[in-house]
Amino acid sequence: MDLSNEKAVGALSKHRASPNSESGTVSSSPDLLSSLQDVNIHTKAHVLDAEEVVRQLKADAKRGLSEADACERLELFGKNELEQEPGKSLLQLILEQFQDLLVRILLSAAVVSFILALFEGGADEGVTAFIEPLVILIILILNAAVGVWQESNAEKALEALKELQPAQGRVLRGGVWRLLPSANLVPGDIIDVRCGDKVPADCRVLALKSTTLRVEQSQLTGESVTVNKV
Length: 230
Fold this sequence. Notes:
- The chain is an alpha+beta fold.
- It folds into 2 domains: about 40-85 and about 165-230, Calcium-transporting ATPase, cytoplasmic transduction domain A; about 90-165.
- The chain is about 40% helix and about 15% strand.
- The protein has 8 helices and 8 strands; from the N terminus they run E-E-H-H-H-H-H-H-H-E-E-E-E-E-H-E.
- The strands form 2 sheets. The chain has a 5-stranded antiparallel sheet with strand order 4-3-5-2-6. Strands 1-7-8 form a 3-stranded antiparallel sheet, with no helix packed on it.
């Protein structure tokens, strides 16, 4: 989403990756990391006070996270990016089209119809005896072709959506604003979003240095104009 305002500062409250999606256990600061695992504000951060969100995330709105703390959280929660799933081969896409129960029933009907036509004088009548099973098979082939085409378009759309993710974000670490890859953002990070920026992650607004806040969210809702948030 593109942000259309002067400047906004927010605390990262939700992560694209699930806990422990990148690596296993974390050896240091077990009490802190254990408490972070129990934090469940992902669905209610927008209704909590900004100070409460910062408190629950064990963050510091003035100095941000330390590098050591950020590294530990990165190990715990994984990278802030959409999970990469291996694409399906053409053969897998074709086979999936025949897993539907109705398709299997039609395929069975075509086989039975072909066998009956073969034993009921199909050799004498020629191709006309096999018209019914052939029509069913043609319909199933066309259905599979359309299904494969739709699945391929859906995968291409997902890949295009991943390319729209912002590559970098301004993050407060140890009292210093830094430009870091968006994938390295962790819950509790304090980020700075300015006019025209893409929001690098789900976050709670802590301070708004503008009279209005408009967001261009057509990628999510299809709306053609920016939406007023404040």
